Automatic annotation (TrEMBL):
Residues 20-467 form the Major facilitator superfamily (MFS) profile domain. Gene3D superfamilies: MFS general substrate transporter like domains. Keywords: Cell membrane, Membrane, Peptide transport, Protein transport, Transmembrane, Transmembrane helix, Transport. This is Peptide MFS transporter. The lineage of its organism: Bacteria, Pseudomonadati, Bacteroidota, Cytophagia, Cytophagales. InterPro entries: Dipep/tripep_permease, MFS_dom, MFS_trans_sf, MFS_Transporters, POT_fam.
Length: 474
């Protein structure tokens, strides 16, 4: 009989959360520091000229490279989740993934010192290899650490949604710090500056040192996870489901309830493609628009473009706990919103956020090419605020949903399926960003707002049917 339930692996009381949650919080924080530190620099690194320390790739092509890279980061978790479920367990997968990603960051650090001969898609081989290692490593890491969070709680535990929101704050603590630290290294500390018309400007960026900091952060998280895992997690995630200390357990066929719940995961995954296609414009079209057309000067200080990648994460750190408390409050009183309604609401809020970017474009008088005409920074901050509230309604709830609805032996693989939405969305988002210069920011931002709001309203409309298919786990 299988003995890898959350109750037997690590009993949890109803007061507070298991200590293992906070180890996972810390581990994920450093992994996200590594990823978002790199991601915050990637678009600038691709598009800045060689003299400025970049690769000199045109904006449209850079957007596509960015989209495909960030997309495949979310495809490989299906493979990594399946391997963990069937063969190696979540804990070993996290170790493999973490070390692989650290190596990828170090290849990005090496890039400026090596020959650019043999470039592929405009990417010299160290850069290409570094990005491929990040894609591969993330596939092992991402679905499995989320799965372990779910394993800490019994089915029906009302703290589960709150736990994933707390875990999500770990993600965003790392995502908040990363662009500040890595961006400071790349755009200030290790950058070469010059005076232009009396104003200090960056002549050459120190991108490689930002990538180095990202790699060191990844290693810190792995060190903590492997030194403290036995103490705070026990045997949770050590063995693949269906195996008990090396003994294979006969698999039972899926029940009708299990197949219905799996169908809900697939249906909602299709809807949230629209959310992530809009949300992930933060690293591409919104980054380029901010760099050129947002007034970034505050009190005589020019805010580095990469720092704006911290705004969303900073809002989540501030708002994550109140939102987690709200879900617990509503749940204890039997008034909690269903999972599909929460997610539909999140999509609507994302669309509202893009309406503020429409306002920014209109303040400039439309799609004006003159970079001297700037829009207020408040439009951008309002956009990120609404995107954050929408994300809190959708992403951590989605992680919790997969852990609730998945058959135990397929949880990590289905967590990978959940990441199919951002895989498709990131690639689609790359094409969207590539068309900003051709179609204009006003039209692109407006269309994103309309499509995401419509999709969110449709999801809310079918929420009752999806809730019924969850068979008491919605």
């Amino acid at each position: 009989m299988q003995t890898t339930s959350a109750v037997r692996e690590q009993p949890s009381t109803q007061q507070g959360h298991p200590p293992g949650l906070y180890l996972l919080f810390f581990t994920e924080m450093w992994e996200r520091f590594s990823y978002y530190g790199m991601r915050g620099l990637l678009m600038l690194y691709l598009s800045k000229t060689a003299i400025e320390g970049g690769l000199g790739i045109d904006a449209a092509s850079a957007s596509l490279i960015y989209g495909y890279f960030t997309g495949f980061v979310y495809l490989t978790p299906i493979i990594g989740g399946w391997l963990a479920d069937k063969y190696i367990g979540q804990r070993r997968a996290i170790l493999i993934g973490g070390l692989t990603m650290a190596l990828g960051q170090f290849f990005l650090f090496m890039q400026p010192t090596l020959s650019t001969e043999g470039a592929l898609f405009g990417l010299p081989w160290p850069t290409l290899l570094g990005l491929l290692l990040l894609i591969l490593g993330n596939g092992f890491f991402k679905p499995n650490i989320s799965t372990i969070v779910g394993k800490l709680y019994e089915q029906g535990d009302p703290r589960r949604d709150a736990a994933f929101t707390i875990f999500y704050m770990g993600i965003n603590t790392g995502a908040f710090l990363a662009p500040l630290v890595c961006g400071y290294f790349a755009e200030d500390l290790f950058a070469t500056k010059t005076l232009v018309n009396g104003a200090e400007q960056v002549a050459s960026y120190g991108f490689r040192y930002g990538f180095l900091a990202a790699g060191v952060g990844m290693l810190l998280g792995q060190l903590a996870f492997n030194l403290l895992g036995k103490r705070f997690l026990g045997d949770v995630g050590m063995y693949p489901e269906g195996r008990n200390e090396g003994t294979t357990v006969e698999k039972a066929p899926l029940t009708k309830e299990e197949t219905d719940r799996m169908a809900v995961i697939f249906i909602i995954t299709l809807f949230v493609v629209f959310f992530w296609a809009g949300f992930e414009q933060a690293g591409s079209s919104l980054t380029l628009y901010t760099d050129k057309f947002i007034d970034r000067e505050v009190g005589g200080f020019l805010i580095p473009t990469s720092w704006f990648q911290s705004v969303n994460a900073g809002f989540i750190v501030l708002l994550g706990a109140p939102v987690a408390a709200l879900w617990v409050y509503l749940g204890r009183r039997g008034k909690d919103l269903s999972i599909p309604v929460k997610m539909g609401l999140g999509m609507v809020l994302l669309g509202v956020g893009f309406l503020f970017m429409v306002g920014a474009v209109m303040e400039r008088g439309g799609d004006v090419a003159d970079q001297a005409i700037k829009a207020s920074i408040w439009w951008l901050l309002a956009t990120y605020f609404f995107h954050t509230i929408g994300e809190l309604c959708l992403s951590p709830v989605g992680l919790s949903m997969v852990s609730r609805l998945s058959p135990a032996a397929l949880t990590s693989m289905l967590m990978g399926v959940w990441f199919l939405a951002p895989f498709v969305a990131q690639i689609a988002g790359g094409y969207i960003a590539a068309y900003v210069e051709e179609l204009g920011a006003l039209k692109v931002f407006g269309l994103i707002a309309g499509f995401v709001i419509l999709a969110g309203l449709i999801l809310i409309a079918i929420a009752k049917k999806l809730f019924h298919m969850m068979h008491g786990r919605g």
